[in-house]
Amino acid sequence: MSDQERHATGVEESDPDAASTALVGTLGVLVLVIVIVFVQGLYLRSTRAEFERKVVSEKPEELETVRADQLSKFTPRIVDPVRGTVAIPIEDAIAAMLRAPDPAAPVAAPPVAAAPAPAAPPAPGRMGRAK
């Protein structure tokens, strides 16, 4: 077989175009990077939503029981009936102190106005002369 018979089959055997191959490869890589970034964003958003749903929005039972126990301690109650000691919430205690201050606190006396000092008489023999 000669070379002419081999080429006569109708198939063209030329080299591929380098510019079009590079363009298709670059566009393929660009599309792949965009898809990866998009999928990563979807994953992070769904992870954040699941964290919010499962962790942040749920109130633990321990917290509820501790909070109820603390609130029961802060309701007004008698601690020592013999001495007359009671326990009240701090906000109520502050309001009571503002309404009726401590009777044992010292009372500040109003300031006394000082009387003006008398003018001193001039010293003898020292009459003012004009110089």
Topology (SSEs and partners):
Layout: H1 3-7, H2 18-56, H3 61-73, E1 77-80, E2 85-87, H4 90-99
Antiparallel strand pairs: 1-2
Give a quick precis of the structure.
The protein is mainly alpha-helical. The protein has helices at residues 3-7, 18-56, 61-73, 90-99; strands spanning 77-80, 85-87.
Task: Describe this protein's structure.
The structure is a single chain. The chain has four helices and two strands, in the order αααββα. The chain is mainly α and 131 residues long. A two-stranded antiparallel sheet has the order 1-2. The longest helix is centred in the N-terminal third of the chain and has 39 residues, at 18-56. The termini are far apart.
Give the key terms.
131 residues, two-stranded antiparallel ribbon, 51% helix
Work out the number of β strands: 2
SSE-based structural type: mainly alpha
Mean pLDDT: 78
Q: Order of strands side by side in the largest beta sheet? A: 1-2
The percent range for helix content is: 40-55%
Q: Kindly estimate the percentage of residues that lie in beta strands according to DSSP.
A: 5-15%
Tally of contiguous helical segments: 4
**Shape estimate:** elongated
Task: Spell the H/E element sequence.
Answer: HHHEEH
Largest sheet composition: 2 strands, antiparallel
Low-confidence runs: none
What is the CA–CA distance across the termini? 147 Å
Radius of gyration: 48 Å
